[in-house]
Amino acid sequence: MSHFSFPSLLAKAMGANKGWTRQWAKPQPKSRYDVIIVGAGGHGLACAYYLAKEHGITNVAVLEKGWLGGGNTARNTTVIRSNYLYDESARLYEHALGLWEGLSREINYNLMFSQRGVLGLAHTVHDVQILKRHIHANRLNGIDSEWLTPEQAKAFCPPLNISACARYPIVGASLQRRGGVARHDGVAWGFARAASARGVHIIENCAVTAINRGAGGEVTGVETTRGTIGAQKVALSAAAGTSGLMEMAGLKIPIECFTLQALVSEPVAPVFPCVAMSNTVHAYISQSDKGELVIGAGTEQYFSYSQRGPLHSLEHTIAAVCEMFPLFTRLRMLRNWGGSVDVTPDRSPILGLTPVPGLYLNAGWGTGGFKATPGAGHLLAFTVAQNRPHTINAPFSLKRFQTGRLIDEAAAAAVAH
Amino acid sequence: MLLIDCPYCRQGRPEIEFSHAGEAHMERPADPETASDAQWEAFLFHRTNPAGIHFERWYHIHGCGCYFNAVRDTVSEKFILTYKAGEPRPAVSEIEALMVEKEPE
Amino acid sequence: MSEPIETRLKPFNPLADKTLALGGRPDLFLRPEDECARFSLRVPVGALKKAAVAFEGNIPENIGEMSVGTGKSALCLGPDEWLLLAPYRDAQSIIVRFSQLYETAAHSLVDVSYCTLGIKVCGPRARLALNSGCPLDLENMPAGRCTRTVLAKAQIILLKFDDQHYRLEIARSFAPYIWEFLKNAGKIEEH
Amino acid sequence: MNSFRTEQGGRLCRDRPLGFTFEGRTLQGFKGDTLASALLANGVCLVGRSYKYHRPRGIMSAGSEEASALVGIDRGEGRFDTSTRATTQELFEGLKAVSQHCWPSLRFDAGALAGLGGPVMSAGFYYKTFMWPESFWERVYEPVLRKLAGLGRAPVATDPDIYSSRYAHCDVLVVGGGPAGLTAALAASEGGAKVILADEQSEIGGDLLSTPEVQIDGQPAWNWLKSTAQTLASRDNVTILTRTTAFGYYQQNFLGLVERLSDHLGAARPGSPRERLWRVRARRVVLATGSIERPLVFSGNDRPGIMLAGAAKTYLKRYGVRVGQRPVVVTAHDSAYASAFELAEAGVEVRTILDQRAHIPAHLSKRADRLGIEILAGHTIARTCGHLRVSAVYAASFDAIKGGRKISCDCVLMSGGWTPSVHLFSQSRGTLKWREDIGAYVPDVYTQNAVSAGACDGDFLLSEALNRGAEAGGLAAGATGFEPGGQNRFGVAGEFPLSAASLEESTHATAAARGKAFVDFQHDVTAGDIEQAVCEGFHSIEHVKRYTTTGMATDQGKTSNLNSLAIASEALGRGAPEVGLTTFRPPYTPTSFGVLAGHSRGKLFEVTRKSPIDSWAEENGAVFEPVGLWRRARYFPRDGEDMHRAVSRECKATRTSIGISDASTLGKIEVVGPDAAEFLNRLYTNTWTKLGVGRCRYGLMLGEDGFIHDDGVVGRLAEGRFHVTTTTGGAAGVFAKMEDYRQTEWPDLDVWLTSISEQWAVIALNGPNVRKLIAPFIEGIDLSKEAFPHMAIREGKIFGVPTRLFRVSFTGELGFEVNVPSAYGLAVWQRLMEAGAEYDIVPYGTEALHVLRAEKGYIIVGQETDGTQTPHDMGMDWAIGRKKPDFIGRRSLGRPDMLVPNRKQLVGLLTTDPAYVLEEGAQVTAENTSAVPARMIGHVTSSYWSETLQRSIALAVVEAGRKRIGGEVYIPMPGTVYPARVAEPVFYDPNGERLNV
Ligand SMILES: Cc1cc2nc3c(=O)[nH]c(=O)nc-3n(C[C@H](O)[C@H](O)[C@H](O)COP(=O)(O)OP(=O)(O)OC[C@H]3O[C@@H](n4cnc5c(N)ncnc54)[C@H](O)[C@@H]3O)c2cc1C
Ligand SMILES: NC(=O)c1ccc[n+]([C@@H]2O[C@H](COP(=O)([O-])OP(=O)(O)OC[C@H]3O[C@@H](n4cnc5c(N)ncnc54)[C@H](O)[C@@H]3O)[C@@H](O)[C@H]2O)c1
Ligand SMILES: Cc1cc2nc3c(=O)[nH]c(=O)nc-3n(C[C@H](O)[C@H](O)[C@H](O)COP(=O)(O)O)c2cc1C
Ligand SMILES: [Zn+2]
Q1: Which of A417, C28, D5, D566 would disulfide-bridge D862, Cβ 3.0–4.6 Å?
Q2: What pLDDT is stored for residue A374 in this prediction?
Q3: Domain span at residue A369?
Q4: Which residues of chain A are under the pLDDT cut of 70?
């Protein structure tokens, strides 16, 4: 792997940019690996990288049915934060945030990780109670999180409309200054390059079609569109593909897939300095380094793998954005797309072992897994390597749905009285 | 916006009149107290979530007020068939026949 | 209209005294409908005939049908759901007759007189104003039909008498919003 | 007149000159011009700067595919539109256009220095650098990069315009009003089908607007167009929408269209909308969206003055503009010859055509000969010269690409063939097939009820477009049950012939491309960038797109996608069909947020539900809070009181005499039928069978997961009739859930539900004097303690108004809830206020209500609970009908985690410092420490100053809380740790003596 730096860019430029080499290798699949990771999204690729780096396991294949990073990694609004309510979640997302900090240099790929601050807007008394509860819990968990008055929120985010006569007035906001955004595609490519450099095989256009099991029910490998591949350990990190894959292993799981839409505006000069999100009106917004406003919505009401959503919910999201940021009505939507998000009943992920020996699961990140990318990969690698969950991901087991020990971040954030 | 054939109204009606009500034919155990934790977990949480033909429920909340069932492809989002609550799950052959019929001309 | 409730208290209607006439003929005319008694009737179709006797009026059988009498109207909104409209003076006798019916045919009759308000929407631009927020094909909706549906962000019951005459029934707390919406849409569509 | 403007011709109103300014310069055009045509007519060639290298850019096309000529249009305060395509902006008197993305000026742009670093800024360069030193990314690099980026100007003032929207239905929607769309609309509407015809341009006609030279059915094209337009306009069943872009094709033939109503006029007339959103549900769709000409990829192909050949013809024929005096034509396709010949015939000195193809059809060379135009077959442009306008090109054959013959010129007309506009078809999820002969994709398999016709289907001949359009329109009408029209065939004369193999050479000159040969003109993506991406392993076309950003600009690759594909496919050594295209997504062209928000702005953004008594609250100075869609009075400050003082006063009055509050927003459901009690048995944790008529009971509802979902009081009015109340926010959800179980789980039960939330206004009266207050006005109800005990319901009259009178209390005082028909709520309230004056009656809002109920330890669902609490957690085991075999959620209460001893339980907290009011949401710890991280054992759910108790009180959920009662816990706040004693959650009148009076 050639090292990226300004001098290397310059050198290549002198050579008319001809001397560039592949960022990740394109090997033919071998018949056997120590570990197979299904799904080359950010999570799967990060897992491969950490398996190699931290556990010395390099005989690893990442199998991807399409192009790497083309799942939800390619289509998310890139909000990164760790100000979650419950201790379990806080630890999980803070673990990831810690890894983000310094990651660009570690993997020698500029992920444009930008800690510009994430605002959570409160519109009602109930919102205030919820956000304050988060802030206090965050503080005691050692996670930066603070409360802003409407005026402070406006100072932090000048386009914000804090007029008291708005239909949903701003009555305050939470702020995590260490939160921010990163370049989604770069994350996938950066991890792919770093994993490939350590010998991991990344195999695109290779869909897993069956999970092979031995006499004792243990995993022996997978069938793919590019042939049979053996491995004693198979880790699923396939987001929206998870239910199908688990069914191949004979298991039904508590996940349903919904469309989540996002859109970008035409690029304009910097006008939006942070990330702002409102749970009450279901919209979140930031501005990319290229200048587009990146806007996300709430999930659609019905299950779907179509990766597109209906117009009426888009209208609602945009109306909400215009309500909170009236300056933006004359901006234009440039592109609108959807992803299929894998949602669990408690809106927390599943990361751990499964009832099938040798089969590991990382899924259910739903609308919020981009921020976890390095953390999820790191913990999945640990779980696979050690055949047991790390203490951080232990609470996120499949088992919790049976015992009832849910980690209900959704309930904690909603339910108006 | 989807156009949904309500089997009670017998009319295609716009999606915003409806709310989605989850997977269909999830039978609530007749006597929940005798269900094991695992069975109850399955009833509460385990879902088919297929990329393809899905049996699901809709509520014509801003219409006739009825819950009903639908067979829909979750990839193309096309409705293949809708039927009243309580009616049996349609057979695969019936669904396949309808899928052919519903191809656009 | 007879005073609904024998009292000196004045009923409150958030749309009281409102009318809106836009354009010359006028093109769009909005006015609150006269107050009346309303009942939500839920009854198995098998007992519908008896219910009609108790109502002393026609009750149509199929969803979307309505029977509009001089005094009494009946709207079929669901497979076993009707909205009955009647002059206030008939309300008490309807209640009594249905409670007698309950003995032989279980059903539910609930007084919903004050749940909704009626708005008359008419004129050549009525359909356009409604379609600013209502996703139904109002042009092809046959005259003399009714349905529950949505208008902008509110649920409504829509009655179509003909292409230029509609009545909306709207939950009271949504009525001012709907009024504003129609007014706004009506004005905008003037241009 | 200058030499760019023709003396006559075009579709201009030459008697309507229009003044406008560009970059502060005053210029003139005519009605009928676009900004682009007017600029060209004034000889203005430099219009904008590119995104990355700030290269000077001109006008490249004549339509919505324009990637380069983006300008700002200033329509006055709040009406600045950035990145508007000069080619689609119609001219109006006083139009003010400014350039963007340059400093200090368009001609001298400092940003162009970036261009010098060009090679370093190759594909994906930002992923490879700006990482050292680390802190520099956030402090230096990113801010600088962001400054440089952004293309358009950021908005600074609020938009005064309004936007409109509507739903529409039709039998046939025709998108595109070119020849194919016109004949489709004609045929579709002939038999009476309702047809909508939409075209994004200012008038219908499509390509016909640029080809007046042809004849259709013996008439000059424009005459035919006029009479066709008249025919269509005369049909009542046809709606023609011009300036209307179909931007999105959604499920089941649902399309979004935006009609631009005033951008061509400057500002909208007051009160009238700027744009209108059409949400169209069509039974059939005819796509007649035409095609877009492809640029050629050669070094320096982006200089101002280099444009698409078809555009040059459009400027000449439609707008009466000669785009230059001495064009050079470079092409891989016959159609450029049409432009060359027409320009030559219009007196422009066309001297050379470079044709990348080796063999030139004879009829073309003959006509070129006649016009004195030299053709260089097998030639392309090696490079170009000129700073702010192209001044010369080097013509070279492919094998001698380095050298070449210098040809001076003032414009270059290029054509790499035509790309069918399959954007909407692809959005509809139809699949495409590759057509080698035209080097493009065309529709293959339809998944919706649509059909394509004309150039968008790969038929580039006018005669084809007309006849295929008619056929498509006829079929569509037939399919919707109308007499299919469109049987007649159209005869075309004078059409420029296209040879069979008009695209035998590759459409681009990658081999030739050296230096900056642009593919995506807006994002400055070069052929080299794409090759580099492939080299770096970005092999999927989706990767190529994302790594180079080709096709991601505001034009979404309309002119570039196929060229990128071709270059990538060559670099990969794979055929184009194998490489594929990126996904087409809405919108077809950028669509304003305003029109998508439509009516939903300001007051209409969301319904504000108001109780029947709201107007009184407003007149009496209430401060409101939103609760769900409702607004509720939070408190009623009197002269200068803050919330704290007002609430204390309201609480005190309620405890000592009478408080009155508006509880109308509560959800209410009437449950009727012989099985009503059984139904409620199954829904609620409580048992209902034994509840006597005239009594009521607090009901607790769980989800199937065993967690508290809602609560409320249920009164039994008759054997088979219950009046159920729900929380304000939960009303709709509870009703839906009840219906769900009624219809689908227990259809055998004879029971029906009716929402009566809005039927009844609810006035809650609390306090020791309440009975005295109402007694004189009540008819038909014995109010005595014995006849009407706590938790009972009676029907009678108050002030002559029928009432359902509940004797319930959410405050712990003697309480009545007066339900009256909502129309009478206000009047009854007013009378009670009058009569209550004697008792110093005080209205209280939700805040005081919360304090009063907290003093009694009553929970609020959604505040004490958050969807993760069981009845046991809330200390409400008493609400569970133990003997019932089943109710919703019962089974879940037996799950292992519901039984663990350390679940969080509701308790009271009394701070050691009675004056300190804890913050709601504050966390509770077992240790007295401010160390972080701390182990949290619960949190404060409610916390108030209790005027009654003269101290602070709080409710909290705390791990194994009930066991801790009497012990101490800690609430660490920034700077201080507050100790508190754990107490029973009932602070006031624990035995309920005040209730039962
Ligand atoms: C519109 C939108 C906005 C979002 N916004 C945010 C946000 O702001 N912040 C945030 O933190 N999160 C956000 N998310 C969520 C986030 O995108 C995801 O949780 C995260 O990217 C998941 O990463 P992943 O690697 O697990 O999944 P993916 O990137 O989806 O990768 C899974 C991969 O598995 C592959 N695969 C599936 N099945 C198979 C098979 N059978 N064989 C082989 N390969 C297979 C898929 O092709 C895919 O590439 C958003 C999501 C969407 C859709
Ligand atoms: N000389 C050539 O090689 C050549 C090549 C291609 C096309 N043509 C000519 O083009 C014409 C083809 O006719 P046609 O009718 O198929 O196409 P057309 O280009 O004449 O008309 C298409 C129309 O659709 C409009 N449109 C496109 N997308 C739209 C959208 N999303 N919303 C609203 N409007 C939209 C365009 O503005 C245009 O007016 C023929 O006259 C043919 O000769 C010639
Ligand atoms: C943060 C972010 C920014 C984006 N910016 C752009 C953009 O500037 N231009 C663009 O065309 N698409 C942009 N996209 C959208 C992608 O083009 C694409 O729609 C998305 O990755 C989903 O893939 P698909 O549309 O190919 O299914 C952006 C996507 C994300 C997640
Ligand atoms: Zn229905």
Answers
A1: A417
A2: 98
A3: 6-75+185-254+346-403
A4: 412-417
Tokens of D845: 């809002």
Residues contacting A216, CB < 8 A, separation 6+:
A357
The pLDDT, as a whole number, for residue C2 is 47
Q: Do A13 and D119 touch (CB under 8 A)?
A: yes
Strand (E) or helix (H) holding D281: strand D275-287
> pLDDT digits over D321-372, tens only?
999 999 999 999 999 999 999 999 999 999 999 999 988 999 999 999 999 9
What is the domain count for chain A? 2
pLDDT single digits (tens) D183-219: 999 999 999 999 999 999 999 999 999 999 999 999 9
Nearest CA in chain A to B43: A254
> Domain check: are A321 and A382 in the same one?
no
Confidence of residue D834 (pLDDT cuts 50, 70, 90): very high
Report CA(A84)–ligand 4 centroid distance (Å): 41
Q: Pick the last residue of a domain from A343, A363, A394.
A: A343
What's the pLDDT tens digit per position in B68-100? 999 999 999 999 999 999 999 999 999 999 988
The DSSP call for residue D23 is: T
Q: Where are the domains of chain B?
A: 3-26+48-102
Nearest CA to ligand 3 atom 29: A75
Chain B interface disruption, residue of D427, D743, D753, most B CBs within 10 A: D743
Q: Are residues A374 and A285 in the same domain?
A: no
Q: What is the CATH number of the domain that holds A352?
A: 3.50.50.60
Distance CA D352, CA D326 (A): 9
Go through the domains of chain D in sequence order and give each one's CATH number. 1-158 (3.10.20.440), 163-291+421-493 (3.50.50.60), 296-415 (3.50.50.60), 512-574 (1.10.10.1100), 608-665+759-786+794-858 (3.30.1360.120), 900-983 (2.40.30.110)
pLDDT digits (tens, 9 = 90+) for D474-529: 999 999 999 988 778 999 999 998 875 455 455 444 544 567 899 999 999 999 99
Q: Which CATH class is domain C17-35+115-191?
A: alpha beta
**Candidates D279, D605, D860; nearest CB to A319:** D605
Under CATH, what is the fold of the domain C36-112? Alpha-Beta Plaits (3.30.70)
B3-26+48-102: CATH homologous superfamily? Folate-binding superfamily (3.30.2270.10)
The mean per-residue pLDDT over the stretch C99-116 comes to: 96
* Token couple for A204: 């695109």
Is the residue at A108 inside a domain?
no
Closest by Cα among A87, A417, A120 to D866: A417
d(CA A317, CA A308): 15
Average pLDDT over residues D944-963: 97
Sign of the C-alpha dihedral computed for residues D678, D684, D690 and D695 taken in this order: negative
Is residue C33 within 8 A of residue C113, CB to CB? The reply is no
Nearest CA to ligand 2 atom 19: D290
- For ligand 2, is residue D418 a contact (CB within 6 Å)? yes
Q: What is the dihedral of CA D62, D64, D69, D71, to 10 degrees?
A: 130
**Strands across the sheet containing D405-408:** D379-385, D392-397, D405-408
User: Each residue of D228-247: pLDDT tens digit?
Assistant: 999 999 999 999 999 999 99
Instruction: Give the tens place of pLDDT for each residue, D697-719.
Output: 999 999 999 999 999 999 999 99
Ligand nearest to the CA of B5: 4
CB contact under 8 A, B63 and C135: no
pLDDT value for A417: 32
Q: Is C137 exposed, middle or buried (0-12, 13-18, 19+ CB in 10 A)?
A: middle
Contact A329 D934 (CB under 8 A): no
Q: Does residue A134 sit within a domain? A: yes
pLDDT at A416: 31
Which of A37, A45, A75, A76, when mutated, tests ligand 1's pocket best, judged by the most ligand atoms within 8 Å of its CB? Answer: A76
Q: Is residue A113 part of a domain?
A: no
